[in-house]
């Protein structure tokens, strides 16, 4: 029922923007040995390094792609300069590659 979807989605998105949620709004990411730990106003979650599909720098943001349609968006302004931002991305990339190597070796 495409018409129902089109009618419902604006309301769902508006509610997510006004009331917050697990996907939208401010988050805090912490690098841990087993992956990234994310905190939002409504909860927290774990992202294993192997679940990060891509790391992309853009003009003012760093994107950690979790799927083809979802990414954690980190403003580069969250870092004092570009060097710590690059170091953060490199640490995540190296941890992801190590985790994937372990998974591949176990298969």
How many E-type strands?
6
Shape: globular
Give me the side-by-side strand order of the main sheet: 1-2-3
The residue fraction in helices comes out at 40-55%
| Class derived from helix and strand content | alpha+beta
- Strand-residue fraction? 25-35%
* Series of secondary-structure elements, N-terminal to C-terminal: HEEEEEEH
- Stretches where pLDDT is under 50 for at least 5 consecutive residues are none
Please give the largest β-sheet.
Answer: 3 strands, antiparallel
- First and last CA, distance: 41 Å
Number of helices: 2
What's the quick description here?
This protein has helices at residues 2-19, 82-106, and strands at residues 28-32, 35-40, 43-47, 54-57, 61-65, 71-75. By secondary structure, the protein is an alpha+beta fold.
Describe it.
- It is a single chain.
- The chain has a 3-stranded antiparallel beta sheet, covered by helices on one side. Strands 4-5-6 form a 3-stranded antiparallel beta sheet, with helices on one face.
- By secondary structure, the chain is an alpha+beta fold.
Features:
single chain, alpha+beta, three-stranded antiparallel beta sheet, 2 helices, 6 strands, 40% helix, 28% strand, globular
Please render the helix and strand layout as text.
Elements: H1 2-19, E1 28-32, E2 35-40, E3 43-47, E4 54-57, E5 61-65, E6 71-75, H2 82-106
């Amino acid at each position: 029922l495409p018409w129902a979807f089109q009618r419902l989605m604006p309301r769902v998105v508006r509610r997510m923007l006004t009331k917050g949620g697990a996907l939208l709004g401010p988050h805090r990411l912490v690098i841990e040995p087993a992956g990234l730990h994310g905190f939002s106003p409504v909860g927290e979650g774990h992202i294993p390094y192997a679940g990060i599909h891509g790391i992309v720098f853009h003009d003012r943001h760093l994107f950690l792609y979790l799927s083809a349609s979802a990414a954690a968006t980190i403003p580069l302004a969250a870092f004092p300069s570009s060097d710590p931002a690059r170091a953060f991305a490199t640490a995540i990339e190296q941890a992801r590659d190590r985790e994937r190597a372990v998974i591949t070796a176990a298969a």
